Amino acid sequence: MTSNFVKTGNTKKEITVLDPKRSNAINIGLTVLPTARTIKGAILKMDSSVINKEGIE
């Protein structure tokens, strides 16, 4: 869950930006992808063995 704290007076109020269920789904999806550095290198080299079209979608 992504949240920020906003200070109002002497107390902090938590603002939720993303639904916890959606946040969990995104985290699971990101774990199956290669690192951003690897993806960048594959794109620059046009290397489809690192990630395929289905992996990007």
Automatic annotation (TrEMBL):
Give one GO term, molecular function aspect: actin filament binding
GO CC field: cytoplasm; cytoskeleton
Q: Which domain of life is it from?
A: Eukaryota
Q: Which GO terms describe its biological process?
A: cortical actin cytoskeleton organization
Q: Which Gene3D superfamilies match?
A: 1.20.58.630
Q: Where is the FH2 domain?
A: 1-57
Q: Which PANTHER family match?
A: FORMIN HOMOLOGY 2 DOMAIN CONTAINING, ISOFORM I (PTHR45920)
Q: Could you identify this protein by its name?
A: FH2 domain-containing protein
What is the organism field in this record? Adineta steineri
Q: What is the lineage of its organism?
A: Eukaryota, Metazoa, Spiralia, Gnathifera, Rotifera
